[in-house]
Amino acid sequence: MLSIMGDGQGLRKKHERIYDYAVYNDLGNPDKKKELARPIFGGTNEHAYPRRVRTGRRSQKTDPQSEIVLGQGGEYYVPRDEAFEDLKKESYVAGHLKLIVHELLPMIEKVLTQKSEFKCFSDIDRLYNESFTLQDQPKSGRWKNIAGFVTNISNNIQGLPRFLEKLEDSIGLRFSPPQLFAKDRFSWLRDEEMGRQALAGVNPLQIELVKSFPLMSNLDSEKYGPEESAIKAEHFNHQLGGLSVQQAIEQNRLFVVDYNDAFMPYINKINAQKDRKMYASRTLYFLKDSGTITPVAIELSLPPSSPNFQGSKRVFTPGQDATTHWLWTLAKAHAASNDAGFHQLVNHWLRSHAVVEPYIIATHRRLSVLHPISKLLLPHCRYTLEINALARQLLINAAGVVETCFTTGPHSMEVSSYAYKALWRFDMENLPADLLRRGMATKDPNDPDKLKLVLEDYPYAADGMLIWSAIQEWVTEYVSLYYTDPDSLSNDKELHNWWDEIRHKGHADKSDEPWWPELISKENLIFILSSIIWVTSAHHAAVNFGQYAYGGYAPNHPCVTRRLIPEQDMDSNEYRELLQNPQKFFLSMISNKFQATYAISVMDALSTHAADEEYLGQRVQVNWTADPKAIACANKFAQRVKQVERIIDQRNADAKLKNRNGAGVVPYELLRPTSGPGVTGRGIPNSVSI
């Protein structure tokens, strides 16, 4: 085992199988440009973060604490047994992402420099209805012959991305209509659809039950303004069907998606950027008699920024006339953009990529390949280190995809780090604990081991509990084969070293927290393993494979907001601009053509299942164990997963469940376990494989 642990020294080479820990010190690139300097994440209280696998690249000249960044053609070290297993898989994932980031997007940016604004919603529709052509650039040495370039790419990559078409002397871009757009191109405008997506969209992990009113912040009021929300009962009590606010709370009918504290500390820095403007949002929802939820008030806040501006908290409610309707639409777009940013930086990248890497490193370092827990976990490690390495190189790096496509820009990883420090807890990452924490479920009084959902038609939670129960049952039966008495657990030094290393090395910045489960019982071991498997499979699937379905149409889930909402003041040029052409103002506020095309291209790639995907309940390695009892347990789990799939199909056909069935409604299939290759909006891979 010592041979694969490394000693914290030297450059790691491609053929090696060495697992060691490092901080995130390779995201910035000050050697190229001082504006590309970024903090080191991990190892400090200010920028707490999980650890990554160590690569040992040399230091940058301008910042000796940071590793050099490898450009186009460079590959970040990944231990060989966690690298992509075959060239086709490598070409498909890595090749497409590198093609988009390094080659395609510079072309698009060059073409769109002079005509980058959407003039009307029809301009957005044309991304899916017409082919957008990139002509040859005769004066450019880099792209003299686009057709030759595409031929070269397609010969070295397993096909082109599905939105690229090789033409005689150009490249054609034509995106497939995202599910939401294909089902109902106007659905994003409806308030009920915004509510449905809070329960069944790409980020259904954030909604909480309102337990008291008014809503409150936990931030320092001297820095960030009053703790109490500006949303008052009089803003929305007329929308509660005759109930008072207190009655709505008592009947569990008020919900909130609250990003106030997550973004407020960074708003002034973000808004100091060119063409980036955002608020910290709160969205209040009401549960209607139909079983659907609808937004009834949105609060958009700015912190104090100078002696002359002591911050603001603006409250918007559904419009009663043409002007207030458009103000409400603008407010919904800002709230949706908050949601898009938090989804990507926290619920997706942090909670299902970054925090998982230490589990994988510790599994290889501390558990032999013959250890039964190693055999259980290895399918849930597959490809994650390679994907995370690509993310550091292309997605979360300085001037990478996230900084380019999201409002948070160069402060994106600071937001993620803050969430890790303030919010992330291992014991809350399993689905039941998360639902209880958010008030979205209660303990069943008839069976304390079961949960009762506060909202019956909450597709993510309802389907997720089926998957969680199947995982927990499988882990319980498997663990019980090898840990038959307390001594068998207490005497397993490998296992204790594994868990100790996850806590004290992989998550060293949070190792002193009191909530870490102690490895003192079989029940705790089952809880730990079930939580890890849930995160690497179902949690990741729920927040990843719907990216194109919901984010592929920019107005629905805009990654970028570039303007604030003007006050209703006729002396304001911006307000007069809004009144004169509200559609144009809306489009000038969200992603422009380049940002939208960039984001859509990447979302398409990240929402794609590869042909060799291994789904929950499946194992590529046939002879993974010689234990017939373990094989029997695995087969039982596979059958249980198939049963869950049938139940999900039945639910999606149930007309009473309006958050997954109805005219123009996208069925909830993100937790449907299996899928074919491509962008399908369904399927739970065993691991974070994309």
UniProtKB/TrEMBL annotation:
Pathway given in the UniProt record: Lipid metabolism; oxylipin biosynthesis
E.C. designation(s): 1.13.11.-
SUPFAM superfamilies associated with the record: Lipoxigenase
The UniProt record lists the keyword Metal-binding: yes
Keyword field: Dioxygenase, Fatty acid biosynthesis, Fatty acid metabolism, Iron, Lipid biosynthesis, Lipid metabolism, Metal-binding, Oxidoreductase, Oxylipin biosynthesis
An MF annotation (GO) of this entry: oxidoreductase activity, acting on single donors with incorporation of molecular oxygen, incorporation of two atoms of oxygen
Family label: Belongs to the lipoxygenase family.
Protein's name in the database: Lipoxygenase
